[in-house]
Amino acid sequence: MTEQSRLNAAAERRRMGPRFSANFMMVLEVSRDLACLCADGVILDINSAGTPMLGAERADQLIGRRFSDLVGDDYTQVVDELLRLTEVERSTIPVQLRRLDGSAADSELQIHPARELGPGHAVVIGRDISRQGRLARTARESEDRFRVLVEKSMHLVALCHGGRMVYINTAGARMLGAATAGDLQGTPVADMFHGEYRAIFGGDLTLLLGETDMMPVRLANRDGGAFDAQIKVTPLPSAGVVPEFMIEARDISSHLRAVAALRHMNETLEAQVSERTRELAQERSHALEAKSFVESLLEAVPNPLWWKGVDGCFRGYNRAFREMHGIGPTEWIGRSSIETLPASFVPTAIMSDTKAMMTGTLIQYETQLEVADGSLHDMAASKIAWRSADDVPEGVIGVMLDITDRKAMEAELRRMATTDVLTGVYNRRHFMTIIGTEVERAHRHPRPVTALMLDIDHFKRINDTFGHPLGDEAIKAMANACQDAIRTVDALGRLGGEEFAIVLPDTDLAAAMVVAERIRAAVMAISIATGKGVVEFTTSIGVAQLCDDDGNAEGLLSRADAALYAAKNGGRNKVVAA
């Protein structure tokens, strides 16, 4: 095959997209994302992760259905056309999925033609982005705190929604030549860039969002001038499909002038050296020295780094990579991912390698990887294709960063922000968010939701008689008894003192009364031994089911609270329905 034939074949493979073998669903079974095979838009097969994502308990509940019927009305026609292969879209498509259980979820889909499996065949890959939406809401709640911090920054800090700036700090406004920050709010993000940068980022916002490392650019002044800057783009969790992100920038004009002068001096020196080193042996010597330097530099990089050829086999890796996998300097050279990496990680490695080769862009993702000592680490990976002098892909370069500690810290911060310190159940703020969400969902998709309000009878007497430490023990025992009596889908929150509330989704008043009675009996059975004798106590519970007059969660809880006081007035240790 001639060189031109190989180039044409490679171009055709990139145009056609990924190819799927007969057993590709077995490979995608390990994926955490939805993966299903469709023929003429009808689901033929689906992996285990996709079944619950579409609200089903078993795969056979989905097989035979049209995939577009599981997509929100706004997206049905587009998805149907892509599944019938009348259109081909390489990028992800933000949609809202309509699950079989009646709920909805935000998702990103990619639809790949799979004609090699049969006429009209396509593979759908979907990723649940509902969690990103929740995190975005938390980010917006922290916006005021964010602005106080960034207003003190000496550099530009801008918050962007979609293609427009919704906030920029005072330093950033001065840097861009605006009289006030308000003059820039609402302007297109692309307008802050100059020349070709404006054309690139104005035409495709994903190119800007894909650059998560520091990046040198040219920014534009309001007076028409331009200056050199270094920016960093940080994507933020978003509740919808419109991306939100933060741009940080600092003026590096002076730095670049110094670098240019240094480069000029270096170029002059290189020219002089070149004139004095025309001999082939000397040129070879310099090349060998450069190669040795690069190898030493790679060895010194503290993060695992590797590179592969177009055949997917390892060509090299640094010391950090060898230590991570517990291998020797040449043990994996010439071997593929399937032959070397943990089986659970192979599909991710192959898919990301393929995407980097096909797109020619930086591919970044987070994953989990089993390292040499057998432990599972959270990793952030970046990959990009490396190219020949003729701009032909020669392979993939990758680097990883261990983010296990960061992930653990994030989880701990989320736990601290949402749970009650004493009992470990949800705190008042997070519980009110949960019950508010359940009430809104019940109004959109009519179904029963019930709330319980309960507290410890004569709690003040316990505190006065046995002291506050024993009162705390009673509160914890009460929380444990409630937690044991409810389902994982139910939510228990401590509203304050000895007062608790519970929300029971998909539960009518009759079923809720059974749960409440079970809790009452469990609390009555609590016995705490003390130096002053055994402490026993009871609880009174008010129960209310959401009705049309309850405009929000507060209305539902108010009726449950009224029922609680009715139980108190009725002699305590009772369950009363509103």
From TrEMBL:
An annotated Gene Ontology molecular function: catalytic activity
Superkingdom of the source species: Bacteria
Lineage, highest ranks first: Bacteria, Pseudomonadati, Pseudomonadota, Alphaproteobacteria, Rhodospirillales
Organism, as annotated: Paramagnetospirillum kuznetsovii
The GGDEF domain, residue ranges: 447-578
Domain PAS: 290-338
PAC domain sequence ranges: 363-415
Stated name of the protein: Diguanylate cyclase
Gene3D superfamilies: 3.30.70.270, PAS domain (3.30.450.20)
